[in-house]
Amino acid sequence: MSLWTGYDCNCGSANWQATQAWKAQSVVQDGPGANYRYLNTRLMSAFCTLPIANNAHPQGQYFADKIKAVNVSAYDMFLMDGCSGSETTWDGTYTIPGESVSGLNKIVSWAAANCIPLHNP
Fold it and tell me: What is the pTM of this model?
């Protein structure tokens, strides 16, 4: 982020000016013109529960909250355990009662089930 805002990412210790500068660079905005309603598109996100080594998870959650507020039926979120890094959901494990699969398999199966062509080829 320092390339665009002039502030380094010191997660957990950012000052107010850095936080505002990072937010200004975000695709997630508030106010007039902000539109998080995706009428023809299902969305999903996958987050690693551990380790959380950077700000990707809270930033993603902020975006997810905006989408769910207006379009909750078209949004799915999956939490992965045992990721090798904070953004490597594909090598984690998605586990709920009755299901335990690799993060990669969960993401691919979700995409295959929810990919609906909206136009003719």
Answer: 0.65
